[in-house]
Specification:
The structure holds three protein chains of three kinds. By secondary structure, chain A is α/β, with parallel strands linked by helices. Chain A contains five helices and seven strands; from the N terminus they run H-H-H-E-E-H-E-E-E-E-H-E. In chain A, the strands form two sheets. Chain A has a five-stranded mixed beta sheet with strand order 1-2-5-4-3. Chain B has one domain (about 70-355): Orthogonal Bundle (Cytochrome-c3 Hydrogenase, chain B). In chain B, the strands form three sheets. Chain B has a three-stranded antiparallel beta sheet. A three-stranded antiparallel beta sheet of chain B has the order 6-7-8. The chains are: A alpha/beta, B alpha+beta, C mainly alpha. Chains in contact: A-B, B-C.
Chain lengths: ~180, ~400, ~475
């Protein structure tokens, strides 16, 4: 896969379109939590917060802003950053919000997993979703009580959905001596 | 008290003390039992590590992933056209919905327009699929409760008819690949609609029959009433969705709450049971949902417009514009979402599936706490988990 | 129009042919060993030959049971599968042999040829002993019943037990030991739980079961199964399920009304019901009590032999297969065999204790064969043909034949009912099961026992 194809398109868009703060961005700012607006994903407000500000932001959004449905926690291995993406819906209103925590790859030492504070202690949905993200993307959620691999076997090595992931055993190669096929 | 009496008392007391010291301490131990991965009623390969005190469950750990097929990885390494055909396998009982979630997200990013007839056809097949999925749940749930031989096969008779409809329209009984990005794959013949209409006419009667057998059965009531009570707050905190959430009294149905496709034009109610949130309510929610789906199908058959069914060319050159987005549909098990990051090439940059079974299963450990072993199946079955949907 | 009439017809043909095979095989063996060989040796002057003939006569009942149990269990398994298929609009096994008739025979051969596995860490001796202990009592239990169900045929009187029903009940409570042993010896947690559940369940359901039987014994005034069966002869009104003989007077009165020859009706009624209105109340109470007792007996029996809705020891969806999870091959086959034999035996006990044993359900005054105008010409026609078989070589014994036929029909009706229950109900939870047993069934049976003890005072039984 070439470098060009590997790049998500939003990188280009970010540079050109001037971004304005959305409703929830302003709300967070009023309550003293800094956030950076990101380009909207199909009409839905998207913002990035610092890793350290995440628990406070989520607590505010869940309790005060009534975005009380955490649909999913996804990890994305973007070209420059590791993203932990939170899709927030509400059980009582139609608003949606996407919150991202972006950990730049350049700031990470080799062999160290990106670290994001865990939400699992007060938002149970996050428990399994964070375990899954840790398993597949390799984002370490600080403060998670039981951060163990969930979809892969417990002794699996590496994080399969990373772009640089190499399979330890090439299961697709028929000629390989340890192939499972 | 005379001296003799007091002597007697003293003697008795001494004797009692002597006996007490001789009684050995009665030790009990907790038993750890592995339920699964190969177990008749874990609906596939789920492993529960149970800590039992006698027959009472003290702690549960769900070990999932035995059926992990790396669906997300495959999505990132296959073209859009290939992946469309693959994704039905995620939830094999309601393949239409996984296709629909993928297509909804891709169409939102792409800005593709879906013809109205295609939207109606989607609703039609999806509601049929919802009925077939609930019918299978009904049968297997009774198996979980121990009615192994009689009733469980009854719903399969109706399900068989629905699968035959799907076979005729999509060429497959379970892996349909019918809903495609930009529309639907094929326009059914007029005779097909007639058959579906006949089915809907007699289906309500069949549900009455099932209810006559099951709903008021005293043993069934004993096994399901006040068992596995799921509070509103707990359900919402765990992100539980679908009939399981609605049985706890939250009227959260995407078809009504965040209407997509042509659902705003259709008339139906969302069955909510605000009594206990126990397994019986979950059963009732699903049964009522089947009735509603039947009504929706009747309306769709009346309202179906003529016209095109596909706007995008279905071949290996299928592309989706660059962008990212999340879209969800209301599957028989809950909110089935798909988060896509596309970079405009023939493959997506990132797929993330939000599967209802995954979140619904995560609420199992608190539900099982301090329940007897026999209730595990009554509770687990009532959540309607599909293991491939959990493990992907 | 019945949608699956064809399947019902097939099943009927299948049952008829299988039952014929069972009948012919069992009676053939008994006739050969119990009548033919002794008859041939009777005139011999050797002591040895006389000894052989005596041994042959003595082992006939045992042989009858040993031949009957495996063939019968095979048919019951097949019947269960086909009937369940019928309930659920499937076809059931229909490939092996003509219309699936040999399916269970094939299954049995497969099980016997399979490797016999003893799991690691299992207590091998106990593990082997468990199926034997589970199975053996069903043979003991069947033997006293044999005379009762064959109209007290001389061939089948192995021991004249005055406490017959007690012996049967005692024997039928032993299998639970086998289950607990099997569960404990398997070194498997599921098996252990199945075994423990089974023990708890058997203890709690034995009590209503035995109490219901004892109440019937109280009415009958004897513990001997043969005399209990004999007391009930003469049609459905004499059976224990309807008042335990309280309606005998009514039966006699109707007979007297129809045939003018006998004693006057008033005298008959005076003999049986001496206290007028009080006797009427007694009759009604007794009829209700015995019908309830029959229901309680069926429930207790279902729990005793671990059938749905009381199949907690096996509980497929919870305990995989309960106490027999680790068994395979011939040991599993023995468990399986014993399970179905137990079902048959508890049904037979119900037939003997409640449903009149080998008695025709029609009352004598309704039965055309009991009128001389019908049976004399019939006898005249049939006697030249059958006299050779009946009187000379004793190949046919009409009394035993009719008794066995009715017993088989009644027993299989009860088996069919058990299958129907299996095809309908979900399973209880263990605490609900205990609750039902101790808080409902035991008090009801105790109350009924007291009621019956009082009510039987105002009626004359079995005069």
């Amino acid at each position: 896969m070439s470098e060009e194809v590997n790049k998500p398109a939003e990188q280009a868009a970010e540079a050109t379109v001037p971004l304005t703060e959305g409703v929830y961005g302003k709300l967070l700012k009023e309550n003293g939590i800094a956030s950076t607006p990101l380009p909207e994903s199909i009409g839905i407000e998207t913002l990035a917060v610092q890793a350290s500000a995440l628990p406070a932001a989520m607590k505010f959004l869940r309790e005060k802003a009534k975005l009380n449905f955490l649909v999913a926690v996804s990890g994305v291995d973007s070209p420059d950053t590791f993203d932990s993406v939170y899709h927030l819906w509400s059980f009582s209103k139609l608003d949606e919000l996407v919150v991202k925590v972006r950990v730049p790859k350049s700031s990470l030492p080799a062999d160290k997993l990106p670290e994001v504070p865990s939400l699992s202690n007060y938002w149970q949905t996050a428990d399994w979703h964070e375990r899954e993200t840790y398993d597949l993307i390799g984002i370490r959620y600080i403060g998670h009580r039981y951060l163990r691999r969930i979809l892969n076997p417990w002794d699996w090595e590496g994080h399969p959905l990373r772009r640089d992931y190499k399979q330890p055993v090439d299961a697709l190669n028929d000629k390989h001596p340890v192939s499972m096929r | 008290m005379t001296s003799i009496q007091s002597a007697c008392v003293r003697k008795v007391k001494q004797k009692k003390v002597a006996i007490d010291t001789q009684v050995p301490e009665f030790k009990t131990d907790e038993m750890i039992i592995n339920l699964g991965p190969q177990h008749p009623s874990t609906h596939g390969v789920l492993r529960l590590i149970l800590t039992l005190d006698g027959e009472v469950v003290k702690h549960t750990e769900c070990v999932i992933g035995h059926l992990h097929r790396a669906q997300e990885w495959q999505g990132q390494n296959r073209t859009w056209f290939q992946y469309q055909a693959l994704i039905d396998r995620v939830d094999y009982l309601s393949g239409m919905f996984t296709s629909w979630a993928l297509c909804a997200a891709a169409e939102k990013i792409d800005g593709a327009v879906v013809p109205e007839r295609a939207e109606y056809l989607r609703v039609l097949v999806a509601e049929l699929n919802r009925i077939s999925s609930h019918l299978l749940w009904l049968g297997t749930y009774l198996i979980d409760l121990g009615a192994l031989y009689g009733f469980p096969f009854y719903p399969f008779i109706e399900r068989e008819k629905i699968l035959t409809f799907f076979e005729e329209v999509a060429g497959q009984r379970m892996m349909y690949n019918y809903i495609r990005i930009g529309g639907v794959q094929r326009d059914p013949k007029a005779s097909w609609f007639k058959k579906v209409e006949e089915f809907t006419k007699q289906f309500a009667q069949r549900i009455d029959e099932y209810e006559a057998i099951v709903t008021e059965n005293p043993i069934f009531l004993k096994r399901t009433k006040d068992v596995g009570i799921l509070n509103k707050e707990v359900a919402m905190a765990y992100g539980v969705t679908g009939p399981t959430l609605r049985a706890s009294g939250v009227a959260y149905d995407l078809r009504r709450f965040k209407p997509y496709s042509v659902y705003p034009k259709l008339e139906f109610t969302v069955p909510v049971y605000n009594k206990h949130g126990d397994t019986w309510d979950r059963y009732m929610a699903r049964v009522q949902e089947m009735r509603e789906s039947n009504e929706i199908i009747k309306q769709v058959l009346d309202m179906l417009p003529e016209g095109e069914i596909m706007t995008k060319k279905q071949n290996a050159g299928l592309r989706v514009k660059a962008g990212e987005g999340f879209a969800a549909v209301e599957s028989p098990r809950g909110v089935l979402g798909c988060y896509i990051i596309s970079n405009g090439s023939d493959k997506a940059y990132r797929f993330k599936w939000r599967n209802p079974s995954f979140s619904n299963l995560s609420v199992l450990p608190p539900l099982l706490e301090n329940r007897p072993l026999s209730d595990i199946m009554a509770i687990f079955g009532s959540l309607d988990i599909i293991i491939p949907d959990v493990d992907r | 129009m019945i949608p699956n009439a064809a399947e019902i017809r097939k099943l009927s043909v299948l049952s008829f042919s299988w039952l014929t095979v069972i009948f012919v095989a069992v009676w053939g063996v008994c006739w050969l060993v119990g009548i033919l060989i002794p008859a041939l040796l009777a005139n011999s002057s050797f002591d040895f030959a006389r000894a052989v003939s005596e041994i042959c006569e003595a082992i006939t009942p045992l042989l009858a049971v040993m031949v009957f149990i495996p063939i019968n269990a095979m048919f019951m398994v097949l019947m269960e599968r086909r009937v369940l298929a019928l309930f659920t609009r499937r076809n059931g096994p229909n490939r092996v042999g003509p219309d699936g008739a040999l399916q269970t025979a094939a299954d049995a051969i497969k099980l016997l040829l399979k490797e016999d596995i003893t799991p690691t860490g299992a207590d091998a001796a106990m593990f082997t002993l468990a199926p034997i202990i589970f199975f053996a009592p069903s043979i003991f239990g069947a033997i006293p019943l044999l005379a009762a169900v064959t109209n007290n045929n001389k061939l089948f009187q192995i021991a004249d037990l005055p406490t017959g029903i007690f012996f049967v009940l005692a024997a039928s409570s032993i299998p639970v030991v086998g289950i607990v042993m099997g569960g404990w010896a398997s070194n498997n947690k599921y098996s252990l739980m199945g075994g423990l559940r089974s023990a708890a369940q058997a203890i709690s359901y034995e009590i209503p079961l035995v109490l219901s039987i004892i109440t019937i014994c109280l009415l009958a005034g004897t513990l001997d199964v043969v005399s209990i069966a004999k007391q009930q002869s003469g049609g459905i009104l004499n059976w224990n399920i309807l008042g335990g003989g309280a309606l005998t007077g009514l039966n006699k009165a109707i007979a007297a009304f129809i045939s003018s020859a006998g004693p006057p009706i008033a005298e008959v009624i005076k003999t049986y019901y001496p206290y007028g209105w009080l006797s009427l109340i007694g009759v009604i109470v007794l009829c209700l009590c015995t019908i309830i007792l029959f229901g309680i007996y069926l429930i207790g029996a279902c729990a005793e032999i671990n059938r749905i809705p009381f199949d907690l020891p096996e509980a497929e969806s919870e305990l995989v297969s309960g106490y027999n999870t680790e068994y395979s091959g011939i040991k599993f086959a023995i468990f399986f065999l014993a399970e179905f034999t137990n079902l048959f035996i508890v049904s037979t006990i119900a037939v003997v204790m409640f449903l009149g044993g080998g008695d025709c359900p029609l009352p004598t005054w309704l039965n055309p064969l009991s009128y001389p105008a019908v049976y004399i010409p019939l006898t005249n026609i049939l006697s030249p043909i059958l006299s050779l078989l009946i009187d000379k070589i004793h190949l046919i014994n009409p009394d035993t034949f009719w008794a066995a036929l009715w017993v088989i029909l009644k027993t299989y009706s009860l088996v069919f009912f058990a299958i129907l229950v299996r095809g309908t109900l979900p399973r209880f939870r263990i605490d609900q099961l205990m609750d039902f047993g101790w808080k409902r069934l035991v008090p009801i049976t105790l109350v009924i026992f007291v009621l019956v003890a009082f009510a039987r005072g105002v009626i004359n039984f079995h005069v």
